[in-house]
């Protein structure tokens, strides 16, 4: 029994861990990297078609976003997740595929005039639809037999609707070992969501460390802080633009805005307009309303019982179409604009930034984590100029952050969760944190809780039977390479990362088709082989 660390190792995004246990090959999360890619990630050690099943901690793209690619490469097993995660992945993976197809169309339209090579999306809507059919819903707190010798259970960790830590019991040679994957551990006292549940026992823990080096500080009064930002911006005649993750953070902000309006906390602007400009956020809000019973906390359920929708209110408008989005910036009245993406790297938020960054009367309000290398991080760090759609924009708007609002537990919250095990785990593997943060939190686990801990780089392999390292790796700085492994930049790098990658995906998928069709009749097998040989000879010539 062994685990290989693939993604989110000394990095925050791209979560992916490969577990070999009880004769099965298992992935825990299959996430997309977002923001700056610091280190090279190893490939998953086996072909996609060899993976038996996948466990998904939650729906955020940095934990689920490469599942369609996995399917395109030949994976056809089950994907286990909570019901809310299944529902959110349906809209998020289709949205991700749509964005990539749109970007490919846009790039190819521009590139064709310049004679550039075709840009191919990482995966398509068809790929996303195919993999969504593999999802299997799992209730919270229910032990499920995933395979002979492997049981799993999902527990609520309060990070996102449906988010979970996953407990995995493995029986090999009559001995049982338990591995717990924390997923992303939520902050306490978040609107609507339950506080993170602790897990009683574990032999090994794979644990996130996003804020493992810092405290969120004294918990602010969110309503009062947000109301103050709204009031001073509206007094200047400006807009409050909130880059927000469409799933989770947008709904939390709506929860606070409903309370602010209900309590009249922005004097003189009682019915200020609020626009949610993100089709994904609109669909996600609908899913939130469908999961009041299994995911909402006691306070939110009490509101629902009274007939009060906790995330809607007078003055709220939802923009679905491109035309509705454009009309928002033509309205002179001061307003709140909530739009994705939360780190400002894609989506409609970039248009709202273009219209508001240069205006000293407006405010750009960050309400979530900004990864290194993103536009959001640059703005939060004080950039005085940015480039949007090829145009340099001066930053004159007020740039501020709603301190303390985070879907992630801070250092104290993480340590508290780790201290919840009745018996110390044999070892904790610290992942999902920026480069030095993983090491800082590793040392905190050793110093404060006396727990052996490791901060693995991508490619490290650990023997969970004998508790020993089989392969120890160091971080390799990320460099784009061509098919021959040579460093490349510019248009050539894009081609190597897209078109050739698509060809490799097709190769993987073809292999899985051949293995699945080995029981066909000899006549059909011969016909298939002749077609493949003809295709190979054509391209060889």
What is the averaged pLDDT score? 90
| Uncertain parts | 488-501
The oligomerization state is single chain
Total domain units: 3
* Count, helices: 16
Question: What name is given to the CATH topology of the largest domain?
Answer: Metallo-beta-lactamase, Chain A
* The CATH H-level homologous superfamily of the largest domain: Ribonuclease Z/Hydroxyacylglutathione hydrolase-like
- What is the CA-based Rg, rounded? 24 Å
> Could you give the distance between the termini?
46 Å
Tell me what portion of residues adopts beta-strand conformation: 15-25%
Shape: globular
- Helix-and-strand structural type: alpha/beta
Numbering strands along the chain, what is their spatial order in the largest sheet? Answer: 6-5-4-3-2-1-22-23
Largest sheet: 8 strands, mixed
CATH class of the largest domain: Alpha Beta
Q: Roughly how much helix do the residues carry, as a percent range? A: 25-40%
Supply database-style keywords.
Metallo-beta-lactamase, Chain A, alpha/beta, 16 helices, 541 residues, 23 strands, 3 domains, single chain, seven-stranded mixed sheet, eight-stranded mixed sheet, Rossmann fold
Question: What does it look like?
Answer:
The strands form four sheets. This protein has an eight-stranded mixed β-sheet with strand order 6-5-4-3-2-1-22-23. It has 541 residues and is of the alpha/beta class. Helix 3 runs antiparallel to helix 4, helix 3 (83-114) runs antiparallel to helix 7 and helix 5 (222-236) crosses helix 6 (249-262). It has helices at 61-64, 67-72, 83-114, 125-132, 222-236, 249-262, 279-290, 292-295, 298-305, 322-328, 349-356, 375-380, 411-418, 435-449, 490-516, 522-540; strands spanning 2-7, 16-21, 24-30, 53-55, 78-82, 135-138, 144-147, 150-156, 164-172, 175-181, 204-208, 240-243, 274-277, 316-319, 336-339, 363-366, 385-388, 391-394, 398-401, 427-431, 453-454, 461-463, 468-471. The chain folds into three domains: 2-215 and 407-471, Ribonuclease Z/Hydroxyacylglutathione hydrolase-like (Metallo-beta-lactamase, Chain A, 4-Layer Sandwich), CATH 3.60.15; 222-401, Rossmann fold (3-Layer(aba) Sandwich), CATH 3.40.50; 490-540. Residues 488-501 have low confidence and may be disordered. The protein has 16 helices and 23 strands.
């Amino acid at each position: 029994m062994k685990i290989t660390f693939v993604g989110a190792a000394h990095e925050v995004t791209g979560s992916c861990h490969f577990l070999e246990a009880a004769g099965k090959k298992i992935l825990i999360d299959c996430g997309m990297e977002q923001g700056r890619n610091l280190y090279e990630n190893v490939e998953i050690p086996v072909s996609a078609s060899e993976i038996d099943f996948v466990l998904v901690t939650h729906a955020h793209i940095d934990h689920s976003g490469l599942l369609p690619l996995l399917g395109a490469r030949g994976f056809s097993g089950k994907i286990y997740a909570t019901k809310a995660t299944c529902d959110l992945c349906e809209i998020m993976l289709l949205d991700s595929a749509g964005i990539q197809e749109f970007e490919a169309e846009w790039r190819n339209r521009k590139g064709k005039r310049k004679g550039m090579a075709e840009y191919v999306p990482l995966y398509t809507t068809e790929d996303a639809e195919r993999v969504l059919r593999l999802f299997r819903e799992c209730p919270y707190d229910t032990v499920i037999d995933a395979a002979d010798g492997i049981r799993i259970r999902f527990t609520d960790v309060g990070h996102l609707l449906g988010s979970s830590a996953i407990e995995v019991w493995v029986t090999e040679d009559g001995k049982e070992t338990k591995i717990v994957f924390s997923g992303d551990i939520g902050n306490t006292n978040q609107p609507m969501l339950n506080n993170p549940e602790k897990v009683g026992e574990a032999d090994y823990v794979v644990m996130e460390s996003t804020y493992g080096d810092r405290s969120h500080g004294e918990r602010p009064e969110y309503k009062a802080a947000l109301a103050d930002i709204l009031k001073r911006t509206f007094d200047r005649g400006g807009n409050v633009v909130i880059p927000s993750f469409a799933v989770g953070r947008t709904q939390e902000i709506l929860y606070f805005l409903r309370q602010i309006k209900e309590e009249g906390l922005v004097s003189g602007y009682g019915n200020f307009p609020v626009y949610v400009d993100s089709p994904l956020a609109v669909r996600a809000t609908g899913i939130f309303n469908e999961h009041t019973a299994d995911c909402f906390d006691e306070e939110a359920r009490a509101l629902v019982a009274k007939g009060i929708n906790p995330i809607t209110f007078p003055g709220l408008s939802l923009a679905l179409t491109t035309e509705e989005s454009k009309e928002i910036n033509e309205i002179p009245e001061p307003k709140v604009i909530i739009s994705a993406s939360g780190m400002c790297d894609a989506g409609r938020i970039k248009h709202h930034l273009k219209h508001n960054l240069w205006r000293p009367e407006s405010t750009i309000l960050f309400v979530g984590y900004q990864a290194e290398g993103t536009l959001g991080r640059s703005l939060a760090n004080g950039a005085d100029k940015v480039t949007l759609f090829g145009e340099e924009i001066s930053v004159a708007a007020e740039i501020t952050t709603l301190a303390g609002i985070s879907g992630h537990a801070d250092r104290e919250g993480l340590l508290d969760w780790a201290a919840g095990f009745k018996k110390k785990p044999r070892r904790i593997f610290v992942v999902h944190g920026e480069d030095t943060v993983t090491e800082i939190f590793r040392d905190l686990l050793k110093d404060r809780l006396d727990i052996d801990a490791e901060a693995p780089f991508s490619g490290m392999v650990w023997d969970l039977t004998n508790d020993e390292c089989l392969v120890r790796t160091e971080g390799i700085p990320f460099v784009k390479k061509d098919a021959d492994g040579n460093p490349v930049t510019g248009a050539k790098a894009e081609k190597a990362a897209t078109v050739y990658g698509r060809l490799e995906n097709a190769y993987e998928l073809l292999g899985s088709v051949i293995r699945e069709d080995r029981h066909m009749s000899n006549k059909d097998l011969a016909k298939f082989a002749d077609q493949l040989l003809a295709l190979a000879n054509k391209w060889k010539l």
